[in-house]
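Section 3.1: Structural characterization of target chains.
Under the original work plan, the team committed to producing a structural model for every single-chain target entering the pipeline before any wet-lab resources were allocated. The record below documents one such target. The sequence was received from the expression subgroup and is listed exactly as submitted; it comprises 107 residues.
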Amino acid sequence: MRDHIKGGALTEVTFFLLLALHQPRHGYAVMQFIQKKTNGRLTLGAGTLYGALRVLAEKGWIAPWGEQNGAKRAYLITEAGREAARQERQRLIQLAAVADEIMGGNI
């Protein structure tokens, strides 16, 4: 994953994963959340999802949550993950402001 917390952009998938995990969810629920919130534009395969969850856990942006029932492992965003999501949200707001300035805001 090419995500950076200092000045760089998060991938759209990473941003949606962090948003999804503002409440505890297991993998399949995360996939459903992302598909619903993007109106089906983003759909994740199991390999992509679980690889991304592993990387986010290694970065300390998410952590396992609650009792783990066999294959169903739930995750929750950490404070470091919340900060990464806040920074990405701010970057997107600034990006949209520049686009509005240039394009007139009447898209």
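DSSP finds four helices and three strands in the chain.
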